[in-house]
Amino acid sequence: MSEVGMSDNVNVIVSNAKRARKLTPEEIAEIEHEMELYPDKKAVGLEALKIIQKHQGWVSDESLLAIAKYLAIPVADLEGVATFFNLVYRQPVGKNVILFCNSVSCWITGCDKMKRHIGDRLGIDFGETTADNAFTLLPVPCLGDCDNAPVMMVGDDLHRRLDFEKIDEIIANYQKQD
Amino acid sequence: MVTNPLTKNIDMSRAPFSLTEYEAADGYQSIKNIAAGLNPGDVMQQVKDSGLKGRGGAGFPTGLKWSFVPQGENSAKQKYLVVNADEMEPGTFKDRLLMEGDPHLLIEGMIIAAYAIGASVGYIFLRGEYKVAEKALQKAINEAKERGFLGTNIAGTGFDLNIILHTSAGRYICGEETALLNALEGKRANPRAKPPFPQVSGLWGKPTIVNNVETICNLPGIMRYGIDWYHGLTKGKDHGTKLFGVSGRVKNPGCWEMPLGTPIRELLEGKAGGMQDGLSLRGFLPGGGSTDFMLPEHLDLLLDYDEIAKVGSRLATGTMIVLDDQTCPVGMIGNLMTFFSHESCGFCTPCRDGLPWVDAIFKELESGAGKEKDLQILHDHVDYMGPGKTFCALAPGATAPLGSGLKYFADDFKRHIDERCCPYNH
Q1: Which residue of A37, A46, A149 is in closest CB contact with B247?
Q2: B378-414: per-residue pLDDT in tens?
Q3: Does the interface ipTM go beyond 0.85?
Q4: Which of B212, B231, B250 is at the close of a domain?
Q5: Which of B96, B171, B335, B337 to mutate: most A Cβ within 10 Å?
Q6: Residues B47 and B191 both lie in one domain
Q7: Residue A104: which of A143, A158, A154 has the closest Cα?
């Protein structure tokens, strides 16, 4: 009995270790397409992370391991890249990611007030996701649209010259889509 | 006579020109010239003679940069052209306009540059957030491929060029050319040691030219209309036109193409309409977040590389951030320090440790917990993180608004400490 118990225990430990998940055929096809554009596999690392994020919403440990295995590159190197870039999410995010510009031109034109307003409406601060998983709020360095400041992106869409009314309208529109 | 070669095709109220429309507007003449026997050496000479300087911030002569690429029988066969489209300098929004408004101008410019240096592959390193530009550029690349302007044996001359659009994932340091190359190779974007310079050993160890979007967009005009025309554009010493932008609390913020050498006043008071009602001008950063403050007394200076350098600042990206009298200068500089601190790659100590320290002091000053000795620490950091003390130009860039701000707005810093709060109403 005791021997069986021990081996059970060992099994428990092994199964706790994270394993590479299986990449989907779509993910593999897109990664393969990127591999044609670069002379080595390492260069495809960031592209692969972005492809996985597009399909899964974020990059889990299991996804990271899967990409590293597929491209035959060290996991630590890929993790180094994944954690370096602002737009690679290593934690789950909500359905709509708000990239809120808080750099200098937006700051001068009152982005702090806009951010507080979003916080009041959605009950979240930077780095947080709403309870219904609809929105994640993240700061983003200068979005390069300074003549329309203050600005933010929701998903792929840029929203310009923000004021309280506009923010309410934008939030309501995305809530309607959900 | 064309006076606005960078923006002549741009009208943001409609879709950008297709290849056919662009061609009809005097575009892709360079392909015909190449087919007619124009050789790469001629192109390089013409760009050198034009006096074009890099529009990404540093202002290095483009033709000279190109001439460092080893040529001839014994040089590396594979050479690369990389376009730096990772526009993330705070307050800078000029390359977005060019890429969204006239993507074929960039593609034609890349063909010219690649032909001159002998590159058969060109990467566009585009920031990930520029979704509209991404679509416009990909469409333009596809059209050019279909038309035979990209691919193999272009115009029957044996010249090959493939353009690959790479979208990044958001880090300011990727704008530093060697960090950009590491990012393209799939590594963390830490800058590399120089030498070797990328022109000799760049992407995957091959000779590589990295040019800014606006720099490349100057090339079709130079090749099409010639040196005399190009030299006739300027109002100052440096040649050509440039995109100039104004953001902040002015009446009409925006981005316009103007001749180099135009007085600053014409940009700020003419194009941007001056300050919003009830506000007056306190100062401005002339070319993005990494430039030194300038003052209202500098408004009659010319928008020229040397002219701006005379008062200790830089023309850099040419996109101006305006500080008004009801915005706290300490808060504005603090905002920039938060940006630079966050975007430090963490590789070298003065930048990795210095910027968060500076940022923390600004937060204390804003909250009213600032102390007299903090000012000395800030002054010291202007030196510790200054040019020559760090691995790349990120931290020295941060010291530009910091050092000049400490000098010009000393009273405001003092008031934050004396009054134990920010004296501005935010």
Answers
A1: A149
A2: 999 999 999 999 999 999 999 999 999 999 999 999 9
A3: yes
A4: B231
A5: B335
A6: yes
A7: A143
